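Lab notebook page, bench 4
Experiment: in silico fold of construct C2
Operator: M.H.
Input chain length: 297 residues
Purpose: comparison with the prior construct
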Amino acid sequence: MAGRLQWIRDAAIKDLSNLVFLLLIPALLFRTMSAVRVEALDLRPVLAYFLAAGVFLTLLIAWRGFNRSSVVLALTGVFSNMVMIGITLVELAYGKEGLVTLLTLVSVHALILLTAATVVLELAVAREHRRAGGEQQHLLATTWSAFKSALIHPVPLPIVCGLLFAQTGWSLPSVVDRPLQLLGGAFGPVALVLVGITLARTPLAGHLRPALVATVCKNLALPVLVGLSAWSFGITGLALTVMVVAAGLPTGANVFLFAQRYEVEQEITTASMGVSTVAALFSLSLVMLAMSWWNPA
């Protein structure tokens, strides 16, 4: 409603996004991870998640053929909106323990998937240029740039800094901890309002069929694959539930950035994000309900 009624206008969306990503998210992530010891982290769920996501990404690319379009469309089926929606949802549903598990995944999610996607996309571009007889791109330079951009980012950077601080054994003084707590508490509602405003401006007409295919892959197929992968690793309890729920989150906005950068499938990607987010109201509820039956905490 805020988007449709123009309570928050287009000119303010960029500032609202900066507020969320540059101030509220770092405060929440740093404070959460500042009390987590590295030896207490279990990396098996992260490994199981990326094994399933990597296999699924490869299958989706192979299904459509190796080109820029197929890579971008494949990303809509594997890249979750773990920050804007996932962090708030997991904290509300599973508490701080569940949030720590998710943030361990979030800290490397963009780094691994976006770097891998950049490599594959640059290979596809190089192939197209080679066929056209044009100048080839410098793959290593592009990949290194993507790696640095994913690491020095408002999401993984405060997670890493918080973990490093935790290893000192110190505690945040209240004069620092209390403002971080207030800022982190504002993240959830502001982020979800921003998602709604963005959704109100997302055109869906004309691309519904491919968007529905992407939504089925992202919201339903990926959580099943991640669940099977985690189960094969012997992962149970809350960690299994959080990984499956993370896989069931709707498509993240980073996919559109790839579509925009490589000038391919921008309309379908935007529509897929919108349909996936709306459908997640029902599909994610189904995933969470199924996990409560299959894997009761």
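Observations: DSSP finds eleven helices and no strands in the chain. Residues 10-294 form a domain with the Na+/H+ antiporter like fold fold (CATH 1.20.1530.20).
Next step: discuss at group meeting.
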